[in-house]
Design goal:
The chain has 370 residues and is mostly helical. It has a single domain, classed as MFS general substrate transporter like domains (Growth Hormone, Chain: A). The protein contains 17 helices and 2 strands. A two-stranded antiparallel ribbon has the order 1-2. The protein starts with a helix and ends with a strand.
């Protein structure tokens, strides 16, 4: 019960931190303030988890859970970092996907060693995280990002009125619906996929071990696709790339309820390594193409990440009930059909790449230019 309560508190704080960080990120623009915040926070990972968080959970669970949720939702949110890298990539003309590739390689390497380190001493993983944070802090301090007066003016012009204006745009809600009903549902499906895969083997231990190998292979393939995905998105356009990724997601969910046996199911799992890189890059390019660039972080963290997390809170319990009542395969078929329906709707609702940007009114010092 305590674990469920803790997860719920973390989910709620994580949900509402997304639009807040989006707004703050756009207000800072290309300045490195948030990078310093995240680097310092990560450096303090081990001291916080070992000497603060765990003792608080033991002595005063609710208070400790709230403090932990605040720290986790602010210090370990990757969305602002992803948005900053994409924003910097546009400024210095390098592709986000090629930078993100190194993140995938780092993730694959970390997951490969984390289990073995955990078996030695769980605290060691926290100290490794702190060491990584210290390295990040050195990198941030040594990296120079020039910020022009024009960029400072654009960042300072971002206001709360802009967010309210976004909420009035049907194109914003069309993209939010795509995030909620396709990307989120796919994420909920993928949460329990390891359990489904492991059940294909004679014993659960073998199944979990094989999934670990499969997941490592998928992450390395994903890293390679991150390098080539920008070329794909640039060639076919952001909207078609989003639809391409959505089609793969819908297909993978549906096929998981059709195919039988660990080999075919493992092949279905590897589809993720081709869909995710195209999706991530297409999301940024779609938002930059169709909305104002000065609101890029707000659009990504609110229009994309917020709705994914919100949907997870809503859909995960419902899908869990379906697993228990009708089983994995029937649930996958139902989810796949649902995603296919939203995919068809998105073909109409998402903006064509030839259409000009949505104009969001600028506000300077509370006075509208419109």
């Amino acid at each position: 019960m305590r674990k469920l309560c803790n997860r719920t508190i973390n989910a709620v704080f994580g949900l509402f931190s997304q639009p807040i960080f989006g707004y703050i990120s756009d207000k800072f623009g290309n300045r490195k303030n948030l990078l310093y915040f995240f680097a310092i926070s990560l450096t303090l990972t081990a001291p916080f988890f070992i000497f603060v968080y765990e003792p608080l959970l033991r002595s005063n669970f609710i208070f400790g859970a709230i403090i932990g949720a605040i720290i986790l939702s602010s210090s370990f949110s990757m969305g602002p970092l992803e948005s900053y890298i994409e924003k910097t990539g546009r400024k210095y003309h390098f592709e986000y996907g090629k930078a993100r590739m190194w993140g995938s390689l780092g993730w694959a390497t970390a997951t490969f060693f984390a289990g073995a380190v955990y078996n030695i001493n769980p605290d060691y993983n926290f100290w490794l995280a702190s060491a990584s944070g210290a390295i990040l802090l050195v990198i941030v301090m040594s990296t120079k990002i020039a910020v022009s007066d024009t960029e400072k003016e654009a960042a300072s012009s971002v206001s709360f009125h802009d967010i309210l204006t976004l909420l009035k745009l049907k194109d914003f809600w069309a993209f939010a619906l795509f995030s909620l009903c396709i990307v989120c549902v796919y994420g909920v499906y993928d949460q329990q996929f390891p359990r489904y895969f492991a059940n294909q083997f004679a014993n659960l231990k073998t199944g979990n071990e094989m999934f670990g190998y499969l997941n490592s292979l998928q992450v390395f393939l994903e890293a390679g696709m991150m390098f080539v995905a920008p070329s794909i998105v640039n060639k076919i356009g952001p909207k078609k790339s989003l639809l391409f990724a959505a089609f793969i997601m819908a297909s993978r969910i549906t096929l998981s309820g059709v195919v039988v046996g660990p080999v075919l199911i493992a092949t279905i799992k590897l589809m993720h390594s081709f869909e995710l890189p195209v999706l991530l890059i297409a999301v940024f390019k779609y938002l930059d193409l169709h909305f104002e660039s000065r609101l890029s972080s707000t659009l990504y963290l609110f229009g994309y990440q917020f709705f994914i997390q919100f949907g997870t809170i809503v859909f995960a319990p419902l899908v869990g009930i379906m697993y228990d009542s009708v089983g994995f395969r029937t649930t996958y078929m139902a989810l796949g059909i649902f995603v296919f329906v939203v995919f068809l709707a998105s073909m109409v609702s998402l903006r064509n790449d030839s259409v000009s940007k949505v104009a969001v009114p600028l506000y300077f010092k509370g006075e509208s230019d419109v």
